[in-house]
Amino acid sequence: MGYDLNMKVWRGDESGGDLADYVVPVEEGEVVLDALHRLQATQAGDLAVRWNCKAGKCGSCSAEINGKPRLTCMTRLSLFEPDETITVTPLRTFPVVRDLVTDVSYNYEKAKKVPALSPEPRQPDGTYRMQQEDVERGQEFRKCIECFLCQSVCHVIRDHEDNKEAFSGPRLFLRYAELEMHPLETGDHREAAKAEAGVGLCNITKCCTEVCPESIKITDNAIIPVKERVVDRSYDPLVWLGSKIFRR
Ligand code: F3S
């Protein structure tokens, strides 16, 4: 059965803005993006909303619903009471372009700094050989749809703009984990994960894992293993000895 949904939607641009009140007729089974589309079609034609697939696979429609980063296309209205007011705001960690659209280029700038894969040479028969078990370990990380909900929720940058320089965030830690665990990779990326990506600033709050729409266990399966490898390298007596000798 349909009902009138009370919504507060952030309207504005980089110079500032505010929450605007709307009442939007919605139908049973709809999601927040449906309500935003109806609002755009009937009352606020200039509302800026980024979206694409409406199936939880493109990562475009990220916004914050009642303060929590979510995909608007995967957030059912039935999660809320019919008389509850839903507040939709842009991702807090990135600069606003207009209304619900943010500039997420921070993530792409950080991605440029992730080293490329340097695989070992092919076997004499022209193939690469990998154990299925090793292949599967990194497979989970490639489910990432780059919605950047994890980046927006992470308190290291959400509340501290000045940490952005030193911290790449959970989405990029997946990339470092993928490289580190790749069965053919020849490079050692532990120093880059520490010095370039700032994995040490993560204090394992696991908020990134909680918001991931692909249910990637970002903290347990990617960040913690990368942290462990960074620590192993730092406290490896041979590495320590080498650093002393070569510093002379
Ligand atoms: Fe941030 Fe995830 Fe670590 S939310 S603090 S990167 S566990």
Overview of this protein structure:
By secondary structure, this protein is α+β, with helices and mostly antiparallel strands. Helix content is 35%, strand content 16%. The protein has ten helices and seven strands. The strands form two sheets. Strands 2-1-5-3-4 form a five-stranded mixed β-sheet. It has a two-stranded antiparallel ribbon with strand order 6-7. The protein is elongated, with a radius of gyration of 22 Å. The chain starts with a strand and ends with a helix. FE3-S4 cluster binds at residues 153-154, 156, 170, 202-208, 219, 223. FE3-S4 cluster binds next to helix 8 and helix 9.
Strand order of the largest sheet: 2-1-5-3-4
The percentage of residues in β strands lies in 15-25%
Fraction of residues in helix: 25-40%
Contiguous low-pLDDT stretches (5 residues minimum) are none
Radius of gyration: 22 Å
Largest sheet: 5 strands, mixed
Mean pLDDT: 94
List the secondary-structure elements in sequence, H or E: EEHEEEEEHHHHHHHHH
The set of bound ligands, ions and cofactors reads: FE3-S4 cluster
Task: Summarize the topology.
Blueprint: E1 3-13, E2 16-26, H1 32-42, E3 62-65, E4 68-71, E5 85-89, E6 96-98, E7 101-102, H2 105-112, H3 132-139, H4 149-153, H5 155-158, H6 170-181, H7 190-195, H8 207-211, H9 218-235, H10 237-247
Parallel strand pairs: 1-5
Antiparallel strand pairs: 1-2, 3-4, 3-5, 6-7
Helix pairs in contact: 3-6, 6-9
Bound molecules: FE3-S4 cluster.
